[in-house]
Amino acid sequence: MEDFHFYTLPLTLLALLYAWFSIKRLYSGGGDTSPPSPPSLPVIGNLHQLGQLPHRSLSKLSRKHGPLMLLHFGPKPVLVVSSADVAKLILKTHDLAFADKPITDHLKTIFYDGNDVINLPYGDRWRKLRNIVLHELLNSSRVKSFASVREEETSLLMRKIEECTSLLAPVNLTVMLVALSNDLISRAAFGNKYSETEHGKIFLDGLDEASRLLANFMTLGDCFPWLAWTNRLSGRRAALKRIVEKRDIVLDKVVQDHLKSLNTSKENIMGILLGIHKGEIPGVSIDLESVKGVILDVFTAGTETTTTILIWVMTELMRHPAAMKKLQDEIRGVMKGKQLMAEDDLLKMPYLKAVIKEAFRLHPPLPVFARVARDHVNLMGYEISPGTIVLINAWEIGRDPAYWEEPEKFMPERFLNSSTDLRGFDFYLIPFGSGRRICPGIGFATAAVEYVVANLVFKFDWALPNGAKGEDLDVTERPGFAVGTDTPLIVVATINSDV
Question: What is the pLDDT of residue 214?
Fold first, then answer.
């Protein structure tokens, strides 16, 4: 936590206020009816224990203190959930009571004061916006309608890789998959590759910069309103303001360009949203601020998370050549005699789906997701006060030996002949969350990941440069909005001679 280290001295002086915060903590639910809690420091509580990779730090603490653990970020009570059984209580039994999301000043700055489906508080406005996203933008029919976009962009990716093979050059798969995800989302959202324009690059660079700034859960100013000045001193607020101003210039231009069009296209998300804004669907409405908020959600939740899981899938396949061979045999058997893959072909590839589920289990792109208690709740005999933040560690739940045999092992076979899926009904596998706040883009994301991975494995054989082995791959995690690998995946591709 850069902010914490930067302000160590003033925080030490503020420790004199410890007694006051102890009383505040008791008032917030820290008494005898509270869950187990690790020791904390005066004033800052457990903030210092988050670390660069919070999912790992929280996992280490929960293995010592239990699957339901109470921390304090300054005076704010924070529940940490690390088992499927407790997650089910939060996301199903008491789903309504925990239906809000925590939103900081920085998130409000980025997401139009929280006027987006990810951050809006639960209520009528959120339900209406959520229904638009689910029923008009990302329903199963709409996801299928983007099949041609997935096919065209994946075909372009294959050609880029072929060019590298003809030059006997290694492939930076990380860079290529980032570009692919940006182009997929850009075409689905805007109807064209806006990423190829100068304005589009500014927009995407701004999203990437904002993601890095939001890598930490909270700053000191979020935990202590009277320390909000630290965000100004650290430069975070100014940096975010600069990013938002540049982004809004681009997004406002896109909106105006679509509005000026006589026939707004209904083949992309922006066109559909603006059609709703103009009253083309009776009984459904949306303002321009929310149009921009939804578009921002699509990019934020779509690009980085899709890229992240694609890279993790290919990384694990490189590390496990037996799994790679088994997947190649399945896909090439289905495609025997065919050159071009159709999405219907994926229905005949159960091992492909198992590989992707296993990658999501081990490497959920958003390893920790958050809720906020809206009401007073008695949870497992503990009294939880309104306003308590809840952090659900999907990464730790996916590695819990109570649910998974050899949980640290990449073993796709565990999902063969299994009804476990990614839709949040099985609380021991929740990479997209669950309940009312489950990610609405699950169908779009999984369709893209399945199709891209199937083509990569079908059309190429893969190796590491200079004869390196899979176990030599650096799988150090990179902090960020979505937790990916810190080192680019550099590989050598050879064209499958049967294609």
Answer: 66
The phi and psi torsions of 361 (rounded to 5 degrees) equal -65, -50
Rounded distance between C-alpha atoms, residue 395 and residue 385, angstroms: 26
Residue 3's nearest CA partner among 55, 70, 74 is 74
**Binding-site residues for heme:** 439
Task: List pLDDT tens digits, range 101-130.
Answer: 998 877 888 888 888 999 999 999 999 999
Residue 490 sits in a domain whose CATH number is: 1.10.630.10
d(CA 118, CA 136): 17
- Mean of the pLDDT values across residues 255-267? 76
CB 236 within 8 A of CB 106: yes
Which sign, positive or negative, has the C-alpha torsion 273, 278, 281, 283? positive
Three-state SS at 461: strand
Annotated binding site, which residues? 439
Which residue from 426, 455, 457 is spatially nearest to 361, judged by alpha carbons?
426
Q: Are 373 and 388 in contact (CB under 8 A)?
A: yes
Question: Alpha-carbon distance 30 to 407, whole Å?
Answer: 33
pLDDT in tens, 313-345: 999 999 999 999 999 999 999 999 898 999 999
pLDDT tens digits, one per residue of 229-250: 666 666 777 888 888 888 888 8
Domain count of the fold of the chain = 1
Cα-Cα-Cα-Cα dihedral of 241, 108, 266, 129, to 10°?
-170
DSSP 487: S
Q: Taking residues 366-374, what's their average pLDDT?
A: 95
Q: What is d(CA 324, CA 331) in angstroms, rounded to the nearest whole number?
A: 11
DSSP string across 216-276: SS--HHHH-GGGTHHHHHHTHHHHHHHHHHHHHHHHHHHHHHHHHSSS--SSSHHHHHHHH
